[in-house]
Amino acid sequence: MISVLLQLALIILALAMLACLYRLVQGPTRSDRIAALDTIGIHLLAVIAVLSIQQKTEDYIEIVLVIGILTFIGTTALARYIERDAVIEQGGDELDR
Hints:
The chain has 97 residues and is mostly helical.
């Protein structure tokens, strides 16, 4: 019974990822694309967690942590880019004043 539910969860997550992929490609704004990319990362974490449960192993937990950290850093960098049009600010602007 649990294997059927896990397969159903994987199918639902795959459909949700396809919907997010559509939003990532279609837009219409950069904010929508960033939100879709972040959501795809979260769905990927869920897929790996379900696979870990399905295979009865804890080997994938480190992968989940790494992908979670990379998703957070990527979303933060893209949000900063939208806000300031630069991810890394150039130093020396304070010295020119």
